Amino acid sequence: MTPQGTQYALFESAESMPVEQQAPTGSVADASRFSDYVVYVDESGDHSLAHLDPDYPVFVLALCVFHKRHYVEKIIPAVEKLKFNYFGHDSVVLHEHEIRKQKGEFAFLSHKPTRTEFMDRLSSIMEASNFILMACVVDKARLGRNEGTGSNPYHIALGICLEVLREFLAEKGQDQLQTHVVVECRGKKEDAELELEFRRICDGENSGNLQLPFNVIFADKKTNLTGLQLADLVARPVGLNYIRPGQVNQAFELLKKKFFCDGGRGLVGQGYENVGLKIYPAQKAKSPDEPTEAVAPTGNPQST
Questions:
Q1: The whole model's pTM is what?
Q2: Partners of 100 in the beta sheet?
């Protein structure tokens, strides 16, 4: 029997409206069966191997997977209220770089007590938001030495993360339903290349040679999608944790409980390494006091 997603009543929130009957196979209605989840994607770091930033020599791709009901009824209203409280309107876009640098709309965060209060409230939203996090950290120095500078960290991370997404949806019994994956526009050429790679992976060029029922959606950040903004906030802390694992990273400590992990949601914060958090190329075992290789990359990734 074909699994069915949930249809949501527009003006009530207490009960879901189950699909009344299964559509005939092959019909237009059958093609519109959507999963209960929506995915928002963002990255941290650039995907070029020609130059390595010694302070951030990694590329991170992060997928935030939201249950649609929780997303529309809990997460969006909470973020909207935060914006109204601090800006008086909701057209502002939450952007990790501008928040961290206290630039533009976020210049008011230069006042430390206000910054502390704002970050606490933003963190409380992140903590209360029941999204599932999947991320891939590409160590660009090691990638360049292993596979050459012609490799594309974004495409590599995308393939890895889409397979993790399929595993999650299979766990939920929804891997046969169409799931939309929303990514931020980066440029006409880059978007065309990414869409081609996305289609190639979904058409079966993956480790399981499986057809993946994912549909990519390109969205400009100015569209002000809450999911894209939350995805933007999670990618950099994941990268920093890899680069400097011994450094205090409060954001990552919060995110550990969001990662897709072994053992289901009863074991959140455990068993996420190499499950919801992937490192590429795969790391060899290291002693506890041995630094992560990404801390001090060489200037030329092919020089060693």
A1: 0.84
A2: none
Q: What is the arrangement of strands in the sheet containing 58-67, beginning at the earlier edge strand? A: 214-219, 178-184, 34-44, 58-67, 132-139, 277-280
- List, for residues 174-222, the tens digit of each pLDDT value: 999 999 999 999 899 999 999 999 999 999 999 889 999 999 999 987 8
Q: How many domains are contained in the chain?
A: 1
- CB-based contacts of 232: which residues, under 8 Å, 6+ apart? 42, 94, 95, 96, 184, 221
Residue 268 domain-assigned (yes or no): yes
Residue 24 lies in a domain: no
CATH of the domain at 282: 3.30.420.10
